[in-house]
Amino acid sequence: MSDLALSRLAEERKSWRKDHPIGFFARPQAGADGVANMMIWDCGIPGKDGTPWEGGLYPLTLKFPKEYPVKAPLCLLPPGFFHVNVFDNGQICLSIIGDGWKPTISIKQICLGVQDLLDNPNPNSPANSSAYDSFKKNKAAYTEKVKQQAKKFPPQES
After folding, report:
1. From the candidates 43, 75, 93, 111, which is the catalytic residue?
2. How many CB atoms within 10 Å of residue 11?
3. Which of 28, 102, 118, 151 could staple 36 via S-S, CB 3.0–4.6 A?
């Protein structure tokens, strides 16, 4: 692990604790020994009110490479997640964590970007053929499947 990556992630954690969007969470995973693994974070992305995603709290895993922040983290939703821009393995296709990555992009910006992507898929960059076909050919069926998926990820009790 690089000192730069760990230093930046410590700053991200401190910044998140001071100011983060309501309903979201982001924290390093705890190892079996209870020590935080700063290189892997568990996050929760709430679906926006008034969208088919409403009512869900979607689990997002951020895996940071040793070259972070020069290289973007791997961002994963659960395998099989139904979305136009999410591969079967859960990997998200989103410009700010792909070709548009900049070392100044924060964990907060990633989480907000994923939330925005949920209800605003990019059909020009499909990663999931089933979701893409449904989105393009039968919007009502797509919306219904999203609403059913939201029920699989209820908000957690604090």
Report:
1. 93
2. 12
3. 28
With respect to residue 40, please indicate whether it lies within any of the assigned structural domains.
Answer: yes
What's the whole-model pTM score?
A: 0.94
Count of domains for the chain? 1
| 93 catalytic residue (yes or no) | yes
For residue 135, the enclosing domain spans: 3-152
Tens digit of pLDDT for each residue in 98-153? 999 999 999 999 999 999 999 999 999 999 999 999 999 999 999 999 999 999 99
Total residue count of the chain as it appears in this document: 158
What CATH number should be reported for the domain holding residue 105? 3.10.110.10
For residue 15, tell me if it sits in a domain. yes
Q: Residues 131, 142: contact at Cβ < 8 Å?
A: yes
